[in-house]
Design a protein that fits this description.
The chain folds into two domains: 142 residues, N-terminal domain of MutM-like DNA repair proteins, CATH 3.20.190; 129 residues, Helicase, Ruva Protein, domain 3. It has ten helices and ten strands. β3 and β4 form a beta hairpin. It binds zinc ion. The site of zinc ion has 7 residues, from α9.
Length: 296
């Protein structure tokens, strides 16, 4: 397995982020923040209020906006997005040594009043992990532009149909678009389309009522099942649990669990999608130059 395929399917999306929110809420609500340290100055995208504003503040709530995690500390919100290579590492007893900015993979450390805390870490050289300290979550640009949450009660079949109507975009790209719906990324969009038996390249505006029914059910059921699976798991197990639950995403060359056909891939410059031709494209493989080379 190459480094890039090992990473496939392990980027946190809505279900893992929800599980992290539940995990953090259970452990931190009611505690006070005793310190915020930066291991990387570039991780914090805001300058007012400063990190010291959190010191002594009680944690009132932990919530989610799409893939953003929001820790509300007495009206000051510490918000972060784990991006592609970021992760949260929880510790029941955080080391006393002060984090120093530099070469550490730890970008940000938060300490709580019972000596517990967490580190936000980021592997690799492309630093995309982003944290914000704001008084209103809507001040975070990526939150202000989010589409509706697909698991919210008001996200009905009718609402979904209205969002899709007139959209001249391929459905795969649309599902991943955070401004269209919030929280779905490359992995769950592959899974949802596989469950819906739909081509990733189907045009949104051309879906008939029956196809929208199928896609809506697949979207809600896939995410709800993944939330149920992730819920209650410790932070360190979530990435592997996510990967293990995938039917087609990240499984190029393996067997489709529904029909037994081979899982195929279409690769792009910085990502790839996986699908089953028998289940999703009438048995006709989608064009992919790299894949056809592999299968020769
Ligand atoms: Zn199949």
């Amino acid at each position: 397995m190459t480094a890039s395929s090992a990473r496939l399917g392990r980027v946190p999306e809505l279900p893992e982020v929800q599980a992290l929110v539940d995990f953090l809420a259970e452990r931190t609500v009611g505690l006070a923040v005793t310190g915020v340290e930066l291991g990387s100055f570039s991780v914090l995208k805001t300058f007012d209020p400063p990190p010291q504003a959190l010191t002594g503040a009680p944690v009132d709530a932990v919530s989610r906006h799409g893939k953003f995690i929001d820790i509300d500390c007495d009206g000051v919100h510490l918000i972060f997005h784990l991006a592609r290579a970021g992760w949260l590492r929880w510790s029941d007893a955080v080391p006393n040594t002060v984090l120093r900015p530099g070469k550490s993979p730890i970008a940000l450390r938060v300490r709580f009043s019972d000596s517990s805390g967490f580190d936000l870490t980021e592997a690799g050289t492309k630093k995309r992990l982003a944290a914000y300290l704001v008084r209103d979550p809507q001040e975070v640009p990526g939150i202000a532009s989010l589409g509706p949450d697909p698991l919210a009660p008001e996200f009905t079949r009718e609402a979904f149909g209205q969002l899709l109507a007139g959209r001249r975009s391929q459905i795969k790209g649309l599902l991943r678009d955070q401004g269209f719906i919030a929280g779905v990324g490359n992995a769950y969009s592959d899974e949802i389309l596989h469950v819906a038996k739909m081509s990733p390249f189907a045009m949104a505006a051309s879906l008939d009522d029956e196809a929208v029914d199928r896609l809506y059910a697949a979207l809600r059921d896939t995410l709800a099942a993944a939330v149920a699976t992730a819920s209650g798991k410790p932070a360190k197990e979530l990435k592997d649990a996510k990967r293990a639950g995938m039917r087609v995403h990240g499984r190029t060359g393996e067997t489709c669990p529904v029909c037994g056909d081979i899982v195929r891939e279409v690769s792009f410059a910085d990502s790839s999608l996986q699908y089953c031709a028998t289940c999703q494209t009438g048995g006709k493989p989608l064009a992919d130059r790299r894949m056809s080379r592999l299968l020769k």
